[in-house]
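ok, trying the design again with the full structure, not the truncated one.
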């Protein structure tokens, strides 16, 4: 790989699984120091071990994105180990499988706490370190469902739509301070999260995808990248 991320220190939330794990692998292969934060400690540590065995430099720190003190802990750990934080992938997310009438306040609050509040907290806690480092880049993982509607996941849509506009607002706030903030809106990728959806919805998504299939992902196989590179 090119080493184009050699001087970067990236925090990746939800980096133990799925899209976040794929990000962690490609960032490490491009030379970045990678801090993986997740609730899933064993999976996160396994990935870190794999990355480090392959010559990367990575560490796992437990993270609950819905808790400010947990973000303070991971960013402090990143700075203490690598001296700075230059990059943040706000990737951790959960699904919600309820429509408008059947969603509960508890389910709504949980989805928004992780997908929406978690993204804001990640930016809030990381940006001061990026300013100290002279700049940085934040990528907030929203969803195609932060742009268009679908049925049966009202809280997910609310949270991912919020990520989209929160990203635009924060990007304007830091545009003159050398911090880029963007959101990404993937279609359906065959990760553990997507596979919690009812089969009937998955078939609908496949029908709406030009490829006629979901993006492939299997743990540590790099299959995810094979769809794009
Ligand atoms: N898979 C898809 O089709 C798809 C499509 C569009 C957007 N997304 C988004 O991509 C992101 C990654 O999803 P994925 O499909 O890789 O799912 P995944 O379930 O494989 O990975 C999500 C990770 O987030 C972690 N996580 C959940 N709650 C957390 C919390 N409170 N604190 C810290 N970590 C937490 C999980 O433990 C898991 O490791 C999510 O934000 C998701 O909404 C996924």
């Amino acid at each position: 790989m090119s080493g184009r991320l050699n001087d970067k220190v990236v925090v990746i939330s939800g980096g133990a699984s799925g899209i976040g794990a794929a990000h962690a692998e490609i960032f490490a292969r491009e030379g970045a120091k990678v801090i993986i934060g997740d609730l899933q400690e064993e999976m996160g540590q396994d990935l870190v071990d794999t990355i480090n065995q392959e010559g990367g430099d990575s560490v796992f720190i437990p993270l609950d994105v819905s808790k400010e003190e947990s973000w303070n802990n991971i960013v402090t750990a990143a700075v203490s180990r690598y001296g700075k934080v230059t990059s943040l992938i706000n990737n951790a997310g959960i699904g919600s499988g309820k429509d408008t009438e059947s969603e509960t306040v508890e389910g709504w609050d949980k989805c928004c706490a992780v997908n929406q509040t978690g993204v804001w907290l990640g930016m809030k806690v990381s940006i001061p370190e990026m300013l100290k480092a002279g700049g940085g880049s934040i990528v907030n993982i929203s969803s195609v469902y932060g742009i268009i509607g679908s049925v049966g996941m009202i809280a997910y849509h609310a949270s991912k739509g919020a990520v989209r506009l929160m990203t635009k607002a924060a990007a304007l706030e830091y545009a003159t301070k050398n911090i880029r903030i963007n959101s990404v809106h993937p279609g359906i990728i065959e990760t553990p999260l997507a596979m919690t959806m009812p089969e009937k919805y998955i078939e609908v998504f496949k029908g709406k995808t030009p490829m006629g299939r979901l993006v492939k992902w299997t743990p540590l196989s790099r299959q995810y990248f094979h769809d794009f590179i």
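Keeping the full-length input from now on. The mean pLDDT is 92.
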